[in-house]
Specification:
The complex is a heterodimer.
Chain A: E1 4-9, H1 26-33, H2 78-89, E2 91-96, H3 110-124, E3 132-137, H4 143-153, E4 159-163, H5 177-186, E5 190-192, H6 215-235, H7 238-241, E6 247-249, H8 257-271, H9 280-286, E7 288-291, H10 301-310, H11 313-316, E8 317-318, H12 340-354
Parallel strand pairs in A: 1-2, 2-3, 3-4, 4-5, 5-6, 6-7, 7-8
Helix pairs in contact in A: 4-5
Chain B: E1 2-3, E2 8-14, E3 24-28, E4 31-38, E5 41-46, E6 60-66, E7 74-83, E8 90-92, E9 109-110, E10 112-115, E11 118-122
Classes of the chains: A alpha/beta, B mainly beta.
């Protein structure tokens, strides 16, 4: 394995909301975490019907083999993540994407909560290893508060991007302009990633056609959320308004990217191209990036290579493991048949370029 | 350990000390091996999922839903199936086969013999035992959030 950057790793807060107490003011600590044991209370995650039903899966989505020796939940021990992930694969850098399940929280509470979470990971993870980099979280329902959070984190070492959990308002909407303006000003890409709330919680994105009956239906349907938001960004002219904005779609798959580019080309050329300065596919290649996990697994690797070629994957794909989630991808096992120069870009250089040296 | 020209047998331990229905991990040189004692006998397999290499012994060992008539859910193969802790691929431990047509890839099985109430595993190519490290299976069942 040559140089590697992993663009999707999930750290967890030890103790849940209780673990954030040292990073809150006394007033917020009392308001947000009193009565909480980490699993119950004002900020605890509500019960969720779409958890992985496989026996042995930890806390609904986590790999049992990624538990640290202490027996704590996978993803809670930064030292163990160093040995179990970074050293195992000789990663030069990883992007930590915390998943604050906050979209259902009161808009009065959520910005405080995500800010405390950012402080937690800056203090308790980024200091452990310089290869750790953080996608700082924002609460997208309050765009002005999100913009303030971005500006507050812009100069922090090892902050490499902004994680914006998707909500049920497509990303082309002007609501997001303050967030995009702050991200561009800070030189930080926006990362979107399934928040866990899709189809389950208030304010979370819906899935096409209705609520799925099973975990598998919902999991494979998450790609719909990515495709819908990518189309929205392009068709709404966001990249004309913010030409240097970079948006990374993590864990939405990528097999939908090429057909979406073609469909946008053919339809937007007839219907909406008067509002766009470029061809739709140009925005998809220049401003949008896609993480590789969960990797597509056709019966022959050559088919995947053709798909990657069609979506300009040598420019648009970023390798990711999704550690420590159950559907993790092993960099030594996936994408085995790539040309060396394409592999070098997907496993390393595209991340360097996308994060402009901050990763 | 006994060695001949093409094979090496490793003594794992007393049969009575192997827990019933719970895989344990042994490391022979650089090869991690899962060993499980079932009512039908002892099985040894490479502790590496043929899909993406995950440590199978940290997965879940139980039965599974077996093929059945439409709309009928039937559980079977109890205590014969190991489920990968990553993507949930299932393997029938006695035969080594992936269940139910998900893949043609199989468990890499090793020969097992019981000699004087001790368990021996033959590991071709592992001509030197750097370490024999006993581990335990996972199989946690924490409440999902």
């Amino acid at each position: 394995m040559e140089a590697l950057i992993d663009c999707d790793v999930h750290p967890l807060v030890r103790g849940g909301a209780v673990g954030l107490q040292p990073y809150m003011s006394e007033k917020d600590r009392s308001r947000l975490t009193s009565g909480s044991d980490g699993r119950h209370g004002h900020t605890a995650r509500p019960a969720h019907r779409y958890t992985n039903p496989s026996p042995g899966i930890v806390n609904g989505a986590l790999r049992a083999d990624a538990k640290p020796p202490t027996g704590e939940a996978p993803g809670t021990d930064p030292e163990f993540v160093v040995t179990d992930l970074l050293e195992r694969y000789h990663a030069e850098a990883v992007l930590l994407i915390p998943l604050p399940y906050t979209v259902w929280l009161s808009p009065l509470d959520a910005p405080t909560y995500v800010s405390a979470m950012n402080e937690f990971f800056i203090s308790e993870w980024l200091t452990v290893d310089e290869r750790f980099h953080l996608a700082a979280c924002v609460f997208p329902l309050d765009a002005e508060a999100a913009a303030r959070e971005i500006r507050a984190r812009a100069e922090t070492d090892q902050i490499a991007g902004i994680f914006m959990p998707p909500i049920d308002l497509l990303m082309g909407h002007p609501h997001y302009y303050p967030i995009y303006a702050a991200a561009v000003e800070a030189g930080l890409p926006i990362i979107v990633h399934p928040s866990g709330g899709e189809g389950a919680y208030l304010n979370a994105p819906n899935l096409a056609g209705g609520l799925p009956s099973t975990y598998t239906e919902r999991h494979v349907g998450l790609a719909q959320v990515g495709a819908a938001n990518a189309a929205s960004l392009v068709c709404s002219g966001v990249f004309d308004r913010f030409p240097t904005l970079r948006v990374v779609f993590a864990e939405y798959g990528f097999s939908w990217a090429a057909p979406l580019m073609w469909r946008l080309e053919s339809e937007a050329a007839r219907l909406d191209n008067n509002r766009l300065e470029k061809h739709p596919a140009e925005y998809m290649v220049e401003n949008v990036r896609f993480c590789t996990q969960p990797i597509e697994e056709p019966d022959k690797a050559a088919k995947l290579n053709r798909l990657i070629e069609m979506m300009h994957g040598e420019q648009t794909l970023l390798f990711s493991t999704d550690y420590p989630h159950w559907d993790t991808d092993d960099p030594t096992r996936v994408l085995p048949a790539l040309a060396p120069e394409v592999a070098q870009r997907i496993f390393y250089q595209n991340a360097k370029d996308t994060f402009a040296g901050r990763l | 350990m006994t060695t001949t020209a093409n094979e090496t047998w490793y003594r794992i331990g007393a049969l009575a000390e192997l827990p019933l229905g719970r895989p344990v991990e042994w490391v022979v040189g650089s090869i991690s091996i899962g060993i499980v004692r079932l009512a039908s006998g002892v099985h040894a397999f490479r502790n590496e999922c043929p899909h993406q290499g995950a440590p199978l012994c940290r997965g879940y060992f139980a039965g599974t839903m077996v093929p059945s008539a439409p709309s009928v859910l039937e559980y079977g193969l109890e205590e014969e199936v190991i489920r990968c802790p990553w993507h949930g691929w299932e393997f029938h431990v006695p035969s080594g086969e992936a269940l139910f047509g998900i893949s043609t890839r199989r468990l890499r099985k090793f020969d097992v013999e019981i000699r004087d109430d001790d368990v021996y595993v033959r590991v071709p190519g592992a001509n030197r035992a750097k370490s024999l490290v006993k581990g335990t299976t996972g199989g946690d069942d924490d409440s999902p959030h």
